[in-house]
Design a protein that fits this description.
12 strands, alpha/beta, 4-stranded antiparallel sheet, 5-stranded parallel sheet, binds calcium ion
Length: 221
């Protein structure tokens, strides 16, 4: 799951990014309104979190312009203000939810999960299965044929992406885009290294070898 957080206060963006990444989300940050809007247009995010008061373009205007151009990505607005008026305005112009600062990261995560669950385009069950593999995203565990796989968090996020797209060919850049944040260096071999490690752990005790390399194109579970 990939999120965009548009927030100009560095303390808050750092805190939210850290909290969300520990739940296996990958998080891009934009620290002003114009950059946030262009990132929301260019990339395919599962959720966009918009601060209301931002340099260059405020959250309400960004939300409105995304909706007017047919973007239906779920949006959560953040604000320092408590007035009912602002909340009503945000919801009226198409935000899906609203949080007042300060907030607990647990509450934000719970609201994100509700939005992902309610969005019919998403399959956001926290327990996924594919053949004899099961992952539990609440407990951060993965098993194959009931044996624990002891995956690192990034390996689990990678496996989640494969399991949400079974039998599809995933290119290296799709994987990089969905599992890593935009700061990831596209020229490193980090995807290859993580796939090699994941494949090794997955296949160690099983006859059926999973994660096929499609030469010159990408990978397929
Ligand atoms: Ca702000």
């Amino acid at each position: 799951m990939k999120l965009l957080l548009v927030e100009d206060e560095k303390d808050i963006s750092t805190f939210v990014k850290k909290g969300l990444e520990s739940e296996l989300f990958s998080v891009d940050i934009a620290n002003d309104g114009l950059r946030g809007e262009s990132m929301a247009r260019m990339n395919d995010y599962d959720i966009v979190i918009l601060d209301q008061n931002l340099p260059h373009k405020n959250g309400i205007d960004i939300c409105q312009s995304l909706r007017e151009t047919g973007r239906n990505v779920p949006i959560i607005m953040l604000t320092a203000e408590k007035e009912i008026e602002k909340k009503v305005q945000a919801l009226t112009i198409g935000a899906n939810d609203y949080m007042t600062k300060p907030f607990a990261i647990e509450e934000l995560i719970a609201r994100i999960r509700v939005l992902l669950r309610d969005n019919p385009q998403q399959t956001t069950s926290t327990i996924l299965t594919y053949k004899d593999i099961t992952i539990d995203l609440d407990k951060f565990t993965a098993t194959r044929d009931s044996c624990p796989l002891n995956l690192r968090k990034k390996e689990l996020a990678l496996l989640e992406y494969f399991m949400r797209n079974p039998d599809a060919i995933l290119t290296r850049s799709m994987i990089l885009e969905h599992v890593w944040d935009t700061n990831a260096d596209p020229f490193t071999n980090t995807v290859e290294v993580h796939i090699r490690n994941l494949r090794q752990k997955l296949n160690e005790n099983s006859k059926e070898k999973l994660i096929e390399t499609i030469r010159g194109i990408g990978y397929r579970l």
